[in-house]
TrEMBL record:
The keyword Translocase does not apply. It holds the Pfam family ABC_tran. PROSITE patterns: ABC_TRANSPORTER_1, ABC_TRANSPORTER_2. InterPro entries: ABC_transp_ATP-bind, ABC_transporter-like_ATP-bd, ABC_transporter-like_CS, Oligopep_ABC_C, P-loop_NTPase. NCBIfam families: oligo_HPY. Signal peptide: none annotated. The keyword Signal does not apply. This is ATP-binding cassette domain-containing protein. It comes from Candidatus Gemmiger avicola.
Amino acid sequence: EQTPEQMRVLRKDLQLIFQDPYSSLNPRMTVGQIIGEGLTSHGIFKKNDPAMKEYIFKVMQECGLDTYMFNRYPHQFSGGQRQRIGIARSLALNPRFVVCDEAVSALDVSIQSQILNLLSDLKKKAGLTYLFITHDLSVVKYISDRIAVMYLGNLVELADAEALFSDTLHPYTEALLSAIPTTEENNGGRERILLEGDIPSPVSPPSGCKFHTRCRYCQEKCQHEVPEWREISENHWVACHFPLHENNAPTGEVIE
């Protein structure tokens, strides 16, 4: 357990980029004040220190913001520019770990690509580690080195990005990947898997494997026993009694 003082030191290394660029910025603060707030709170600069302004200019430029924006307010910017301000605020403290909570979901597709490219470039330059939370599988494939798939609050599969897309082990992951839109004829030869039934309540989840009520490979064991979290191949983990590459059973009916 961390003391308040220890947590304060730790928070400098752990930063968050929020989902909504419209509500995550204080409308009464200028861009310079928004980016500089963390710097003064953590004692990196004193208020009104001339060196802080130069440092903020540098961070703004790294995040694709012109320095003339320093004294402007959030309402004067587009969604993409506001998200760049949020990114600059997070990265100004030189964090080691950044949580990106649906960081591009509120933006237009064209702006999404700009922000993703920016995040990717900053990751390489600063050696950052991102925890990127998203439901957009195209974003996942582009930005991630390793991918964790969750269902009803539980991890069901964890693997390197390439392995997860090419050698899927969990039936839920298989269904998710089949839903990725493609311009290829006949869905590029991939089967489109439609999950049946309703999503169970997280408050009162099914017994055994939580996914068994919607899984087309469900067998009796799945209804009663919680699957082990196990490593099937190097760095590829899954929570499933019958991982796909081991599953020779015929497709079954969904068990109510």
